[in-house]
Design a protein that fits this description.
Structural class: alpha+beta
Number of strands: 9
Distance between the termini: 29 Å
Strand content: 35-45%
Amino acid sequence: MRHIISVLIENESGSLSRLIGLFSQRGYNIETLNVAPTEDGTISRITISTYGDDQKIEQITKQLNKLIEVIKVVNLSESAHIERELMLIKVKAPSEARDEIKRTADIFRAQIVDVTATSYVIQIAGTTEKLDAFIDALAETKILEVVRSGISGISRGEKVLSL
């Protein structure tokens, strides 16, 4: 089962390296990793998606909490949450395929953010499943390059991850 873990960590040199080292030392795989400072510049929020059973995720959470730099750990998958991922995809866009590519982008509420004589760069945000479906919908189109941000997530309602 996929789990999304959010971690508040002190924004110091080497903090991310120690956190990632914890995963690799124990043989845990990181599917996606997203890191950015919070509204407090001394704290970063790390969102990790990984796969494992509940026992494995509980072990990961316990190990993360042992790190000195870690302030708080929350498994977003345990409660209602919102998750999004951003993707930029560059596709070959010959003149005869441009209208169909535009229609597909419109259906998925994606935006064409760069146009050249032979290609489009399309931006799309949504769940991982939506992004995968968009790639599948472009099956007739030659995909030149794909860049994905990894999952960002936040709890719904009153629940917050803060100090």
